[in-house]
Amino acid sequence: MSETAAATGADDLIHLELKNGRVVIRLRPDLAPQHADRFRSLAAEGFYDNTPFHRVIDGFMAQGGDPTGTGTGGSSLPDLKSEFTNKARFVRGTLGAARTAHPHSANSQFFIMFAPAPSLDGQYTIFGEVVEGMELVDQIKRGAGSSGMVSEPDRIVRMRPAAEAA
């Protein structure tokens, strides 16, 4: 964890409850303030509860945040402009904003990296990092084939800002 991440406040901690336990995410508003705020807001309203990890590629990432489970859904809020940075890299545990081929199309979908992916650096918005429970993320059911789409996917049990998670 970087010093900048360590300096963020308790308001930037998110509790992600999976079937096997709790994952703690630290948002990075220092890198992507709009994306961190969107994720925090959606988590606070319960948007992510029971949504699937619909696309999971072994050795790459687990993608969730789409209530339809198809990879085409999002929230009712407008899409966000990209907040690409050269200050951070896609490494194990990084949270990135999923999007279409259009760089300003991120909405509610996100992904958590299983391993480094330098090809994503500067191409996708980094807005958080797993600080506890990565071993639980590693247990998320993987998809089949190159698309990584998962039949009968694992789901987010509950996700809330830590201050509201009690």
From TrEMBL:
Catalytic activity: [protein]-peptidylproline (omega=180) = [protein]-peptidylproline (omega=0)
Summary of the function given for this chain in its UniProt record: PPIases accelerate the folding of proteins. It catalyzes the cis-trans isomerization of proline imidic peptide bonds in oligopeptides.
Family: Belongs to the cyclophilin-type PPIase family.
Database matches in SUPFAM superfamilies: Cyclophilin-like
Keyword entries, A-Z: Isomerase, Rotamase
Parts forming coiled coils: none
Family matches, as CDD domains: cyclophilin (cd00317)
Classification via InterPro entries: Cyclophilin-like_dom_sf, Cyclophilin-type_PPIase_CS, Cyclophilin-type_PPIase_dom, Cyclophilin_A-like
Name by which UniProt lists this protein: Peptidyl-prolyl cis-trans isomerase
Domain PPIase cyclophilin-type: 12-164
Species this chain originates from: Rhizosaccharibacter radicis
